[in-house]
Structures are given as C-alpha cells and as structure tokens.
Design goal:
It is a single chain. Strands 1, 2, 3, 4 and 5 form a 5-stranded antiparallel β-sheet that branches. This protein is mainly beta and 80 residues long. 14% of the residues lie in helices and 51% in strands. The longest helix has 11 residues.
Length: 80
C-alpha cells in the first residue's frame, strides 16, 4: 500500500436551501489552498480546504480533516 496526502478546496453552493458541493480544486500546499479558498469565498456560500490521505493502489481515502473553512460548510461526516 502506498499512502499519499492530498489537499483540495471544495466550494459549496446553496441550492433550494441546501448546500451542494461544486467542483473540487487540488492544491499543493496548505498555504496555497487557504489563499485560493479566500479568493473563491466571495462566489460561494462556503468553501472548505480538506486534507486527506489516500491509497493510490486502491483509491481509498481516509483521515479526512478540514484545514480551513469560510462561510457555510456542512459537517465533515456528511462530506464522505
């Protein structure tokens, strides 16, 4: 098993009163992810920067955590 870490920025739109995820964007560092999330925040109801580990053989992801969030973001357990 080969484990890797990945950072993504996940924006959310509000549709019919519910938060819906939009297109995730990959980031290389925490700093660049937070900077980009701040730039995206004005266009969305909320933006979360997530870090997780994944197995590149099986594609399984685990140890998901929210590094940074702005605006309305659903609970972490609802993002899985």
């Amino acid at each position: 098993m080969s484990e890797n870490k990945r950072l993504i920025i996940l924006p959310f739109r509000k549709m019919r009163g519910h938060l819906q995820p939009d297109q995730a964007v990959r980031a290389e560092t925490r700093e660049s992810a937070v900077r980009r999330a701040k730039l995206m925040a004005a266009r969305y109801a909320g933006v979360a920067t997530l870090e997780y580990r994944y197995d590149d053989v099986t594609g399984e992801s685990f140890d998901v955590s929210i590094v940074h969030q702005l605006g309305e973001v659903p609970a972490l357990d609802s993002l899985r």
